[in-house]
Amino acid sequence: MKVKKIVLVTAEHHPYHKLWTRLAENLSKLLNTPLEVKVEDYVYLVEHGDKDEFGMAWLPQILVELEDGSIHWLLSKLPLNNALQPDEEKAINEMLEKLKSIGVEVPEQDQPTN
């Protein structure tokens, strides 16, 4: 299965808007696929995004549209590091793992050397 595009649904007033934008841009470059940014599109998220137990969606979220037209959410909550700060590397890895789990071939990441 191939990725058609990455979709970021965000709000410019969100405190981590720039971080989410950077994550979506990095994933888009890594997969060599277009990025579409939607601003406060709650209808799209209610239809395709992650939701709480009441069916309510939140911002921001990163989703993927596949070549077959299906849409899956990849990231809806930022993972945190030990200092309780957003962990960008872990976020990218979580999205790549989610892509693998839905049958998308992803490029191998260079592993950091210690």
Please state the overall shape, judged from the principal axes of the Cα atoms: globular
Count the domains: 1
Percentage beta strand: 15-25%
In round numbers, the mean pLDDT is 94
Major beta-sheet overview: 4 strands, mixed
From the alpha-carbon coordinates, what is the Rg to the nearest angstrom?
14 Å
| CATH topology (fold) name | Glutaredoxin
Number of separate strands: 4
Low-confidence stretches: none
- Spatial strand sequence of the major β-sheet: 2-1-3-4
Task: State the end-to-end CA separation.
Answer: 34 Å
Count of DSSP-assigned helices: 3
CATH architecture field: 3-Layer(aba) Sandwich
SSE order, one letter for each helix or strand: EHEHEEH
The percentage helix is 25-40%
Keywords:
114 residues; alpha+beta; Glutaredoxin; 4 strands; 32% helix; globular
Task: Provide an overview of this structure.
This protein has 114 residues and is of the alpha+beta class. It has a single domain, classed as 3-Layer(aba) Sandwich (Glutaredoxin). The chain has three helices and four strands, in the order E-H-E-H-E-E-H. The chain has helices at residues 17-31, 42-48, 88-101; strands spanning 3-10, 35-39, 61-66, 71-75. The chain has a four-stranded mixed beta sheet with strand order 2-1-3-4, sandwiched between helices. The longest helix has 15 residues, at 17-31.
